[in-house]
Design brief:
Oligomer: single chain
Number of helices: 7
Number of domains: 2
CATH class of the largest domain: Alpha Beta
CATH topology of the largest domain: Nucleoside Triphosphate Pyrophosphohydrolase
Largest sheet: 7 strands, mixed
Strand content: 35-45%
Structural class: alpha/beta
Helix content: 25-40%
């Protein structure tokens, strides 16, 4: 069975959506619902069409029209099978490390190893004993590095998003900590590559510091993302970071950026 992956972006125009269909169906003569129905009914070998629909909560009548055509053709053709998959779409990073307008379903980005944008926010506090960072313990529900200690808050940029805006949003969602973008100090950009099983996660991370006063007891953790938080002094953490019993996915390069920014 042939698998055909089609991206239906809720931000796309009718022309853009049918151009995507024409490309994936290998026919330039797909510019409306009637031509789409004709192309599908002419499929002469068993094919599975996976329709990836972006998960924004906005209407798109063309997508509704397209999915209805696929449903009808599945009923009337022994060769056409279809599946609708709602997914977050991410913009991709090009070869020059610039954010592009090209977007792709998150699950496929992680499958194919496409370079995509992410943000890391390190919450720090300075004490006489040293520089402390707030670590989050990742939820056991996470597909990547479950139950591991990690950066204070992190996340992807949804399509059309901006780095600093995403950093503010992720900090609020994961920790219940509302901050202003101007309170974030940008300390660097890093590429990160992670592979495990069928996951190939390649990110361009924008790294931020937050130096405001934070009390752990006031935080509201997003249970699906974060199971716990704690403070750790950087040098003490570095001394045990490779030891058994301290499961973590902390990037040492980011700790070096923190120390450079603080000292």
């Amino acid at each position: 069975m042939e698998d055909v992956e089609i991206y239906l972006n809720r931000f796309a125009s009718e022309k853009q959506l049918y151009a995507e269909l024409a490309e994936k169906l290998g026919s330039n003569a797909v510019t409306d619902k009637n031509e789409l129905a004709g192309a599908l009914m002419n499929v002469d070998s068993e094919s599975k069409f996976r329709l990836y629909v972006s998960n924004e909560d906005i209407p798109n009548e063309t997508i509704d029209e397209i999915t209805e055509v696929f449903r009808e053709c599945e009923k009337n053709s022994k060769f056409v099978k279809m599946e609708i998959i709602e997914d977050e779409f991410l913009n991709l990073i090009d070869d020059t490390a610039h954010l592009t307008d090209t977007s792709k379903p998150r699950s496929l980005v992680h499958r194919d190893g496409d370079l995509h944008p992410a943000v890391h926010v390190w919450i720090i506090r300075r004490r006489d004993q040293g520089i402390f960072v707030l670590l989050q313990k990742r939820s056991h529900e996470k597909k990547i590095s479950p139950d591991c200690y990690d950066v204070s808050a992190a996340g992807h940029l949804s399509q059309g998003d901006e780095f600093r805006k995403a950093a503010v949003r992720e900090t609020a969602e994961e920790l219940g900590l509302k901050i202003h973008g101007s309170e974030l100090e940008h300390i660097g950009l890093l590429e990160s590559h992670y592979s495990e099983g069928d996951i190939n996660d390649n990110e361009l991370r924008s790294i931020y510091l937050y130096r405001g006063t934070v009390h752990i007891e006031d935080l509201v953790l997003q249970s699906s993302e974060v199971s716990d938080v704690c403070w750790a002094e950087i040098d003490e953490m570095l001394a045990v970071i490779d030891e058994d019993g301290f499961d973590n996915c902390i990037d040492l390069r980011e700790l070096a950026l923190i120390k450079k920014a603080v000292f």
